[in-house]
Amino acid sequence: xxxxxxxxxxxxxxxxxxxxxxxxxxxxxxxxxxxxxxxxxxxxxxxxxxxxxxxxxxxxxxxxxxxxxxxxxxxxxxxxxxxxxxxxxxxxxxxxxxxxxxxxxxxxxxxxxxxxxxxxxxxxxxxxxxxxxxxxxxxxxxxxxxxxxxxxxxxxxxxxxxxxxxxxxxxxxxxxxxxxxxxxxxxxxxxxxxxxxxxxxxxxxxxxxxxxxxxxxxxxxxxxxxxxxxxxxxxxxxxxxxxxxxxxxxxxxxxxxxxxxxxxxxxxxxxxxxxxxxxxxxxxxxxxxxxxxxxxxxxxxxxxxxxxxxxxxxxxxxxxxxxxxxxxxxxxxxxxxxxxxxxxxxxxxxxxxxxxxxxxxxxxxxxxxxxxxxxxxxxxxxxxxxxxxxxxxxxxxxxxxxxxxxxxxxxxxxxxxxxxxxxxxxxxxxxxxxxxxxxxxxxxxxxxxxxxxxxxxxxxxxxxxxxxxxxxxxxxxxxxxxxxxxxxxxxxxxxxxxxxxxxxxxxxxxxxxxxxxxxxxxxxxxxxxxxxxxxxxxxxxxxxxxxxxxxxxxxxxxxxxxxxxxxxxxxxxxxxxxxxxxxxxxxxxxxxxxxxxxxxxxxxxxxxxxxxxxxxxxxxxxxxxxxxxxxxxxxxxxxxxxxxxxxxxxxxxxxxxxxxxxxxxxxxxxxxxxxxxxxxxxxxxxxxxxxxxxxxxxxxxxxxxxxxxxxxxxxxx
Length: 717
Ligand code: ADP
Ligand code: ZN
Description:
Elements: H1 3-11, H2 20-28, E1 33-36, H3 43-53, E2 57-61, H4 65-78, E3 82-85, H5 91-102, E4 108-111, H6 113-117, H7 123-128, E5 132-137, H8 160-163, E6 169-173, H9 178-188, E7 194-197, E8 205-211, H10 215-224, E9 230-234, H11 238-250, E10 255-258, H12 264-275, E11 281-284, E12 297-302, H13 309-316, E13 326-332, H14 334-344, H15 350-368, H16 373-380, H17 393-396, E14 397-403, H18 405-417, H19 424-431, H20 441-444, H21 457-469, E15 473-475, E16 483-485, H22 489-493, E17 500-507, H23 519-536, H24 540-543, H25 546-555, H26 560-563, H27 571-592, H28 598-607, H29 614-632, H30 637-644, H31 648-661, H32 674-685, H33 690-697, H34 703-716
Parallel strand pairs: 1-6, 1-7, 2-4, 2-5, 3-4, 5-6, 8-13, 9-11, 9-12, 10-11, 12-13
Antiparallel strand pairs: 14-17, 15-16
Helix pairs in contact: 1-3, 2-3, 14-15, 18-19, 19-21, 23-25, 23-27, 29-31, 30-31, 31-34, 32-33, 32-34
Adenosine-5'-diphosphate binds next to helix 3.
């Protein structure tokens, strides 16, 4: 079975995302790997797929029991035998699992780090007696004091390489700056690891900051269009979470509070209800989130400014793990910054306080930003990004202008009247007729004094700035800059030149995502999923993701063969649940006289394997380009593969892209006389099954040649 076949068979996906293929390649070649990928990027697959393909047991170290259970349930639903061992289990449960491990009946075993190395424990010796073929360390940043989530028990993992010197280790995290990365590598003693750093951009999340006025009304406005969606609202205090949850309940929303002060039973009740889609909104302090794997969180609201960008990014990152469009909304008031300042100070530690305050200032800066918010976030994490993302409030807002000639004339004549000797603050006070002493007596006698009283100071400040930007005024470079007229001023004063000023920025209401799925059908599918989940005693998103349901409601598969093309249906899920999901589709289509649209899905698949992942594409481009330039420098495919530590098949994949784009001539890969033969086979048998083509063509034709011709043909189309 090839890697791609396994991906389809077990997980039901058609293509790898981002660097997944290369990561898996490395693991299968026995190398240690460090993976940095944002939340929702698809880290789990990077070790789960090798676990399926390799002979033996994969041990997964994970910090949280809740997460382990989620992952194990998910794998078992997919038909991959997995288990965990932890203190929540009875002796007999543990004995059953131990027996299965001895019989090699389990592919993945999840463990907490302290469990393996607990003193007096015999577990480590037992594990060493098993054929362990891979060790995966999830949330690897927990090993570093530099990370924001240090867990001392992770330090014990330093002993792993000693105990399993020959077993490849893959460490994964969604948060690690360079210091933490280095720490992970050192502490785990990884052996010449291949490192994969993905872009941390979350392209499917829209960032929005709104000045907080009446936060509850603002929230209701925001929630109005999101009644069916799951979301998290973060508040600063425990009391605030309870108050807001109650207010929302009274307004007809299903909301629950979550904070560290609740007793454990209530915490897990609320969390469970949220995971199972029974409660739509969790109002929480930051205690909520770590360990929440729920993939269909559609929005995250901060009702208050977070303390730093790291926290903000991690919390907003809990939205949209499934890759569907999601929102991050921050309600911000200038007073937030002042209040948090007090908390930021660490008693008796100047240095630490300074760091915390700097981080807070960066957060305040973000909230006040007039430029692309995504760019700011990316730069904060040392990644470059263009200055217009098209999906933050700043980039989506349109500037509204008005005729500001009169205002400009007032401003310019005021500057002239005070003889171009004062700064903006003085000129504004003068225009507004301030009674302050600092306004000179002789100025108070002038006609211009007080003509601008009706315009607020903040607005005047903005207008002055704009007039300077447009060149009707200029500021001197002094310590106390003074406003001067320019050679453009005269025309304005004489009424010969109109001036446009910006009034407010209005925001384009975000257009509903142009996915033309059948809403009624989607709701029915969700009900089917809910029942299946209840039967299997797992959260609904583990049965199939929202993405999968939306695809069904878009492409209307009519039979199991169609369903294969829907992302998320591997063999087992198809066999177990396929029929259940097809019934409502059939009924719906009959009632509404609709045909299957599965052909459209096939067309899309050929064009864009993974449309959601713009960030992934940049990275894919990078690695492709690298292979290309090595090829151009005269290296053979196997040399490139060797140098880059990738498989020749991966390199062929990279280069075929350039055949398609015309940068490589197909004749560099295939002899001319072979082309029509391959072409003929492709036309008769299609490109879905490469192995079938290879069989038809026989020994004389390689996979590389076949792929090259496929790329070349798609270019000619
Ligand atoms: P992470 O652990 O990096 O936060 P996950 O491993 O939970 O992310 O993956 C996020 C989602 O993306 C999951 O629903 C997963 O099934 C899905 N996914 C992962 N890889 C692929 C792929 N190649 N094609 C389609 N969906 C994928
Ligand atoms: Zn932007």
